[in-house]
Amino acid sequence: MQRRLAASAVIATLMGVAAGACGGSSPGAPTGTPPGPPGTSSPCSAIGATPIAATAIVNGTACASSSSSVVRVEFTDKNGHDAGACSGTVIGARAVLTAGHCVVDSAAARVSLGTGATRAVVSLAVHDAYKADRSSPLDLGVVIVRDPLPRSPVPVLFSRQARTGEAAIIAGWGLDEHQSGDALHAALTTIAGVSDFLESDFSAADGSVCQGDSGGALLLAQNGAWTLGGVISSGSTSACDSGKSYYAIVGSDAARQFILSVAPDAVVR
Asked: Exposed site from 4, 23, 93, 185, fewest CB < 10 Å?
């Protein structure tokens, strides 16, 4: 069973993804020598945070959240009930990019920076293709907060596509290998495939995503800096320490048009 990675108020809901996401690299996937990652002593530094413990996302590092650009988004439904939480990445002064499946059935949200009061959200948007088809690879949503966030936006990578074999960093607020959550984690991984989704494989050396990480960041190196190349979407099994992880691609024409239509001030590269 494939898993969506939003954290439910009661239990994480397991949902499917498109069958096309389960294969390997497509024939047209970019190849060649991938760019090397920027120098970093810890995956936490790629999201503006410092490491505090060597465990979690799964197989990653717990990060201090006081300056991170990866945030937690808490959703409520139309009746005002808790609808669970996801992760998200600050891409503009007031814009947070997250997963469409986190937003699509939600009526309101607040953004938590990990410290201090939560921030009011004034609008939520989900890609039209995802609203029409929950198996769409355009699993993208944007929340706009009322006031500017005290975080540095992560540039969205529009100038190129990911390459198979490329080093990446994943970050989110989901569960770790001990089923502990509500903390920010980051991990190194490798792009294992480029199809309808970006793909990575769990291994002893590579991290994996888990419930609550939905909407979090997959970062790729570009011109000596970390940029947002994908949004955490789902996993291939109900377990978090095996199988594949899938990420919505932000650099497609359809993704780019959506992001800039609702977050015109997004930082891009």
From this structure: 23
The residue count for the chain: 269
What the block records as the tokens of 97 is 């990019």
Query: What token pair was written down for 260?
Result: 């800039």
Closest of 35, 53, 124, 51 to residue 88, by C-alpha: 124
Which residue's structure tokens are 């690879």?
137
| Intra-chain end-to-end CA distance of the chain, in Å | 36
Q: From residue 236, how far is each of 4, 15, 19, 60, 78 by CA, in Å?
A: 9, 10, 10, 19, 30
The alpha carbon dihedral of 156, 266, 248, 147 has a sign of positive
Q: Which amino acid is at 259?
A: I
Q: Tokens 């480029």, residue?
A: 194
For the stretch 209-258, pLDDT in tens is 999 999 999 999 999 999 999 999 999 887 788 899 999 999 999 999 99
Q: How many CA atoms lie within 13 A of 69 on its CB side?
A: 27
Is 223 in contact with 202 (CB distance < 8 Å)?
Answer: no
Total-model pTM: 0.83
Rounded-to-integer distance, Cα 141 and Cα 126, Å: 4
247 in Cβ contact with 197 (< 8 Å):
yes
Phi, psi for 94 (deg, rounded to 5):
-125, 10
> Cβ(99)–Cβ(141) under 8 Å?
yes
